[in-house]
Amino acid sequence: MAKSYVVSLGGAGNNALNAFIKQKSIDATTITIDTDLNITTWASEADIKLFIGENTNGCGTMASPEKGKNAVLMHEDDYTQLINGADIVVIVCFLGGGTGTGGLPETVKISKKSGAKTFVVSAMPLSFVHHSHRDNSEKVLPKVRNFADGVFLIDQELFVEKYREDGMNTVFKKVNEAFSDVIDCILENQEKGIECKQICSEVHDKCAIFLEKIFVKQERNGRKRQRKRSNKFE
């Protein structure tokens, strides 16, 4: 059986991880990583909680990607030990904030350096948030694609459109359920022993209706292939 890890970064990523834990059907070790002491103390249901907020006094990064990056780097050895021997690592975060946005590229690099297949399930900021959050996300995404074996972006706007009248709590609940579905699909296909490219293809076929984009690492020439959603969300 593969040694699988699902790792969240930041507060919103932790919410998605909690949703996965509640409905997971595949055995995996779960880890939450955050600069906010409240998340790692009581708000996470993960097997392992890694607090990395010494440089933020445990109060989060205040949406500073640079602080998020530095916090992850300060704890590189701790994280490396936690995922030692992993066959696959699925990293979960929402882009736009500080811990997730700044820490994601470094977490992906460390995971790949450990020898694990490394996938990212994430989402771009919603359209109504400040433009700086999207700008930071777009700066980070190419760095993530350079190292991850596959990157899956959930399209949050689809859920806003469909569930707006039910309130944003329902929107976020449905988004987190979509995260769980993608994570499950990745881990299920890992158990089959197939290659990263094929895992990405299987996830695309099953979850395309709510994926904004998929970036697949091409092993032969190092180029990345981008897939766009071909189905409508119904």
Task: Summarize the structure in words.
The chain is α/β, with parallel strands linked by helices and 234 residues long. The chain has a single domain, classed as 3-Layer(aba) Sandwich (Rossmann fold). Helices cover 49% and strands 19% of the residues. Strands 3-2-1-4-5-6-7-8 form an eight-stranded mixed β-sheet, with helices on both faces. The C terminus is likely disordered.
Draw up the topology in text.
Blueprint: E1 4-9, H1 10-23, E2 29-34, H2 37-43, E3 48-51, H3 65-74, H4 76-82, E4 88-92, H5 99-113, E5 117-123, H6 131-147, E6 150-154, H7 156-163, H8 168-191, H9 196-207, E7 211-217, E8 224-228
Parallel strand pairs: 1-2, 1-4, 2-3, 4-5, 5-6
Antiparallel strand pairs: 6-7, 7-8
Helix pairs in contact: 1-8, 3-5, 5-6, 7-8, 8-9
Keywords:
single chain; 234 residues; alpha/beta; Rossmann fold; eight-stranded mixed beta sheet; 9 helices; globular; disordered C terminus
What percent strand? 15-25%
CATH architecture: 3-Layer(aba) Sandwich
Return the structural class: alpha/beta
Shape: globular
State the distance separating the first and last CA atoms.
35 Å
Instruction: Assign the CATH superfamily.
Output: Tubulin/FtsZ, GTPase domain
Q: Trace the largest sheet across and list its strands.
A: 3-2-1-4-5-6-7-8
Q: What is the CATH top level name?
A: Alpha Beta
CATH topology: Rossmann fold
Spell the H/E element sequence. EHEHEHHEHEHEHHHEE
List the quaternary state of the chains. single chain
